[in-house]
Specification:
It is globular, with a radius of gyration of 19 Å. It is of the alpha/beta class and about 230 residues long. The protein has two domains: about 40 residues, no CATH class; about 180 residues, Mur ligase, C-terminal domain (Protein-Tyrosine Phosphatase, Chain A), CATH 3.90.190.20. The strands form two sheets. It has a six-stranded mixed beta sheet with strand order 1-2-8-3-4-5, with helices on both faces. Strands 6-7 form a two-stranded antiparallel sheet. Helix content is about 30%, strand content about 20%. A hairpin with a 2-residue loop joins strand 6 and strand 7. The chain contains six helices and eight strands, in the order H-H-E-E-H-E-H-E-E-E-E-H-E-H.
Length: about 230
């Protein structure tokens, strides 16, 4: 049996569904026969083949510490020869724990094999605070194009509103120039057809990182499945 839906959560969900169907009278063999027809929910770890040896995982609908950890665990299981390209957007609505939780993601990323990591949004500046693994390149984009790109080190004082006990960022949605710069950087990696490449796009809905996904898929005549 092989599921079209990647990730450990998909296996757990299918197992629970099969157990329920078994209680309702279906055989396990019938469940297995139906498994190839299951499709991933749009924008939640949906795989798209860009070319032989190049895959895009669209996980742009939502992002949380748990779902980001699972997506990174999936990426970590790839063969060592695979070039990993991670587009990681801010995780939102985490309250006073947001700084700590973004730093935890940065630590997990630092343990991955050599990769290209593109952090997007002021909170993902945490990626610049953790030394990456040898051979890993980390770029950070504020989310609003300012010509700084990878040279940026932290959100400016103009981009935040300080309140007792927390920091609230004014800007969420990634603008078109930033999305285009991210797509250009990914396309530079995809240009070498000798490389096996997996691109993960992971971000909270408010950032609209589907712009990055669409920027990669549309020139190839592939339509993104949207919720």
């Amino acid at each position: 049996m092989a599921l079209k839906i990647p990730g450990r959560a998909a296996v757990a969900n299918f197992t629970c569904a099969a157990a329920l169907c078994s209680q309702l009278g279906m055989s396990l063999e019938e469940c297995v026969d139906l498994s190839p027809s299951l499709e991933p929910t749009p924008q939640r770890l949906v795989p798209y083949e860009l070319r032989p040896g190049a895959l895009l995982l669209d996980d742009s609908y939502n992002s949380s510490p748990a779902s980001t950890q699972e997506a990174l665990e999936l990426i970590a299981q790839l063969p060592s020869s695979t070039r990993r390209i991670l587009v990681l957007g801010d995780m939102l609505e985490l309250g006073k724990y947001e700084t700590m939780l973004h730093r935890q993601v940065a630590t997990q990323v630092s343990r991955l094999p050599p990769s290209l990591v593109l952090g997007v949004g002021p909170r993902m500046a945490a990626l610049k605070e953790t030394p990456p693994a040898e051979g890993t390149e980390v770029l950070w984009f504020r989310g609003i194009d300012d010509g700084i790109g990878s040279q940026a080190t932290a959100p400016s004082s103009e981009s935040v509103e300080r309140e007792p006990g927390r920091i609230r960022y004014r800007q969420e949605m990634v603008d078109e120039p930033t999305a285009e710069r991210i797509v250009e950087r990914i396309e530079a990696e995809l240009a070498d057809e000798r490389k096996e490449v997996v691109v993960l796009v992971k971000g909270s809905r408010a950032l609209h990182l589907e712009r990055v996904v669409q920027g990669i898929l549309a020139p190839r005549g592939i339509e993104e499945r949207m919720l």
